[in-house]
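TL;DR need structure tokens for one chain.
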Amino acid sequence: MQVIGTQVIPEQGGRRGFTVEFVGKGGEVVSVQLRKDMDRTLTSNNAIDRAKAVMGELASFDATTALSSVEAGEAQPSARAAGDVDEMEDQLAQGLEDSFPASDPVSVTSSAIPTGKVRKH
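>> reply
TL;DR here they are.
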């Protein structure tokens, strides 16, 4: 990939981190998401260097070792991949509980105060 441009996109104004996009001559785009670390050393100025370091680690990653550990049963497949409907239902219920009250149906509210008086027409 011949990089012709980079772009640093702040996540929530940089408070959550940055997304660095590398744009290639053939229209390829590689995005690297970087989250803020505890010591808050990630800035828009050093985000590109950090993204390059992450991609360097990725390039040296041995996928055959990771694949053989999955085949050996060391890594457990997701509920969706395993077809475990009960587990997927449990995960859905947990997600809905975690998002409460946003998952509740919308209700109509009014700021009117009842006076107890009824008007006759």
